[in-house]
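Good morning,

Both structures are done.
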Amino acid sequence: MSVEAESVVEQYRAVSGPSGENLGWNMYGSGVESQGRERAPEHIPVQTPASDQILVRVDAVGLCYSDAKLVMQGGSHPKLHGRDLANEPTRLGHEATVTVVQVGEDLAGQFTPGQRLAVQPDIHTNGKSTAYGYTIPGALIQYHLIGQEVLDADDGSYVIPIDDSIGYVAAALSEPWGCVEAAYTQRRRLSPLGGGVMWVLGRPDDTTPYVFSAGLDQPSRIITTNVPAQVIEMIENGKNPDATVEVRDDLDEAGYAAFAEEETDGKGFDDIVMLDPRSASQVEAIAPHIAFRGILNLVGREPLDGKPAIDVGRIHYHYTALVGTPGPEIAASYGAERNRSQLSPGGVTLVVGAGGPMGQMHIQRAIELDDGPKTIIASDVDEARLTFATDRLAPLAESRGVKFVPVNAASPGALAEVVEAETGGRGADDIVLSVPIPAVIEDGATLLAPDGMLVLFAGVPNGSLAALNVSDVYLSNAQFTGTSGLNTSDQQLVLNKASTGALSPQRSLGAVGGIDAVPDGLQALIDGRFPGKVVLFPQLSGLPLMGLPELAEAYPEIGKRLRGGDTWTPEAEAELLATFWRG
């Protein structure tokens, strides 16, 4: 970086109290026009922190398609719980990095002025989501107070200290990158729930010598339906002595819903075990009655007579798990050994929706894994986005010895042909679906190898059904996984990788803007204008929303510090501050 830029960065990091007006964008309803007042930021007083609060300067804020959903839905968004925004506004901006300015006296031993923090916005208080940038006003402001609603919630503090080796863009983007990392950490429950309710269904004529060597002693209630006598005996011998066993052989598919409502108050069964399943319609009728984080365990050697329609929204948001084994050991379905969450080493990974910001992050992560896939197929229907992703990521893949195969999936059959060619007809070892459309999920799943992993990353609403080859779950150990949000450890992992150079979160950046660019940034999200992430710098004025190539052309001193003319670097960030920060 230039000497001037280095000096400006030093001044910027030597933070003092706010001077002049504090500008922010409160949200008063749905639509971009409801941000601020008349498409302009408001003058909001800067308050002195109370004893249990800190005053922070907001350094950078990433915009996310979740923000676009909030803009379009306003108070009807599920996370706002019907909030009357006209009278109780909130503020967007959950991908944030901040610097501590002032510290309340009770927190003097925990925070210091000048300390840099990343915010983990997926906050829960008393078990209820109170996310920062949703119910808690977020970071589209220059300065604001952070109190116990963030610093002392269910999991303690939801801010993470960071060091100066990590740039502001990289720190802000640690949140979406944390969501990507979370997709490959085990979120499913992989053992019978202690104190839970288990339902075991079977076939009376089944002579399989089943064994349940571990976990059968966990449920407090076990209900059986149409299981053979030897299974009843096995349950009686292996259950917890205090657990009850009830036989309900009077049930058929039509009665499952009423039975589940009656027995679980509509919450669903914690564990459902299906022995020797044959009927897709039966699996389809059973699956909706798994509880939050519940498990459907299928044990059998014969394929189903079709593909049951499964609620893929619940796999994503409720962490419901479909596990299985050929048997006869029922417990073999559980545990980490048979339920992987990482990409298959040396395998073929397909990313659907590869041209969007999150799809690009999944690809970059796969490329940079020490023991990652050998081939990555990047699929998108938008040629411009696919070209952008290819230009950004193909050179990185080549440098790591990974084959990068871009595919425009707009042409019918094109993607299937490429997957067949790259896998010898076996199917992809892993498929990451970043498109929240059930039909796309359903089509993508047909390209999965029998023992492959389907990662449902994009959030489709609960109740979204897709016909999946569930037979492969128990016959071949196929995995259907999904995650929503992240936790502090996920984001900390990203920051650790960034500090050691193992990951460059800033590579995902597509456009930047200053405090005045909020409406344009949100509209760009809604319109899909940029294939990379949008990051705003609230402390910068006079910086309109600009894609990186446009920025490079308008400001050559910044442009010559971009890698390849369109990839963000710490040096470009320093020049941006030197150009636009008014001190």
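Second structure follows.
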Amino acid sequence: MSRLLPSCVLVLCFVSCNGLAGELAFRVLDSGHSPVPGVVLEVRSLDQQIVIHSGRTDDNGRATVSASLPVTVSVQTPGFEYLYKKILTATGGDIVLHLTPATLKITVDVIVKDTPSLDGPVERSALSIERSGARTVYDAVDKLIPSAHVPSRGILGHGLGKSNSMTVRGLGGSPTTQLLIVVDDRPDVMGLMGHPIPDFYSLTDVGSLSITAGPASVLYGNRALGGVIEVQPIQPEPGFHTELTSTLGSYYTGQDRLRHSGQLGRFQYQFAGGIGHTNGHRENSAFRNQDGSLRLSYGMTPVWKASIGARYGHFTVEDPGPLQNPTPGEWARVGRGGYSIGLDNRTEQSRGSARFYASHGHHMLADGFRSVDSNLGFRLKQTLQIRPGVEVDVGGDASRYGGRARNILSGYNFGEYHVTEGGGFGRVRWAAAEQLQLNAGFRYDRNSEFGGVTATEFGLTYRFAEDYALSLAIAKGFRNPTIRELYLFPAPTPTLQPEHLWNYQASFQFRPVPRLLAWITGYYSDVKNLIVTTGNYPNLQLENIGRASNRGLEINGRFRLTRRISLSSGYAWFGSNNPAPYVPANKFIYSLDVDLLRAFVAFGGRTVGRTWTSTARTTRLDAYTAATLKCTVPLGSHWSVFTTVDNLFNQQYQELDGYPMPGINAAGGFHVRF
């Protein structure tokens, strides 16, 4: 290891640059097509090594740049979400960039292709999954969002037990039924149990990741009580491209990903496949998974585009059990797949999407449990420009989910159950004044088991000056009981009712100097009707008697020390009168990125406070610090190699009670693109 760490002080970024000639005219508009003056607009060469222009837009939201296409452009200003895009072609006239108001969202741009020799340094205001050393979507959320926590039991493999959990601002549950994962604009959930499967979310085909901290039930309905994790697949680039990434490290831990995309006129295709494996740092803790996806799209007209996508994955995971009560021989095998058919449209005054989707899964556990589940549904959303300064979202969705389960060892048949639900929503954003943005939304949802339920949201963003903005938001969220809670185990209770939450938050975003962007958010959540388990086994009962008052503070900052050195950090404090298990009261994340032209070094870590291990609050896990160092070095115009060291300071800690995490461990690999 002493030889490994010094060699890790190198990472890349070498690409050819484009010639600069001619002029490009940019115009930045808000969602109401009104100009946004004074925003920071930076234009770089396509490889991002050359800064062509860095300045602010004029009073009409315009900026003229001496450059020729293709280029990359980034726009950032308080009150709006960060925008980054590649400009490959232009039809003449202004290149219009539309900004989205920042209200409830914290957006994380996932840079999967983190190869400085090929793609150049990324914008430091974007957080990178690859540079964080994350191996899965869940891992990335834990490392990049201070208010999120994902307890793990090893290097790879969460399994289906209590490690199948994730919380954001103290909400999520174990299993995670209070947070929703959305993949390519469609909710993704295990139909019978009502929760996502962590080991199914690899990074094989992830292009961007967006975290909504706080209820998002107006837009997504059921299960978005505490927030939403939106995963968008990688968008194919013009031409033909193939990428291969391979890693191998401690405990025979490896991940291999292959992607290929191409374009033939209006037709685009992309397929991806991945393999992951580890023997685990404890006996009986192995993990194996494979997943693959295929997406086809066709531009029918300049306005309409049709697409179809399919995905399948399979994994096997072993659970050694806690140290105080080992369970050798415990395993789970899961296969999940699905497809979606999409139709997208975009004009100057309107944009929208339609998704019809279906997914299914087959779960097998060592204790004899077997289940088959499915989820079938559709989702529509259309954004309309009613008049200058007023934008409206309208849409609806419906789904039918459920399945059947049995135990082949005991012979017990749990039965077959299905639930249907659907609803409609509307949201409006109004640029009431040059400095004031207002938004409101409403959803009505109806469930075959619980009848109707509503969700609402209100917010405003006020820009005090070019670099200072205040956002206020109020939102209601809900979660319906799952089929497991109603009819399966641990105590089937068909009389359960939905959980409800009101969330109130304020966020202040500021840029005191051009190199520093920071924001502070305070929130208060009142959660009612929580489903809790009472009594002692085997006389258990589920009841809607839980209530929690959650409050917290989040502080985030990104500082570009020099053009090639940047710092990012975030801190979250959480307090509650009824804290859920494995929710830290304090969490601090930090990263240092150093671009050495021919090499790149990324150092990051997180310090996590003490957590309760159960609702009884009798045992706590100690605080810990886990750090990661990643180094990438180019070996030519298409190749790069990298090394990652986890738990850099060899800390002894647990994220789940009885499951010690591995000590210092390392992996190396390569990336090639052609």
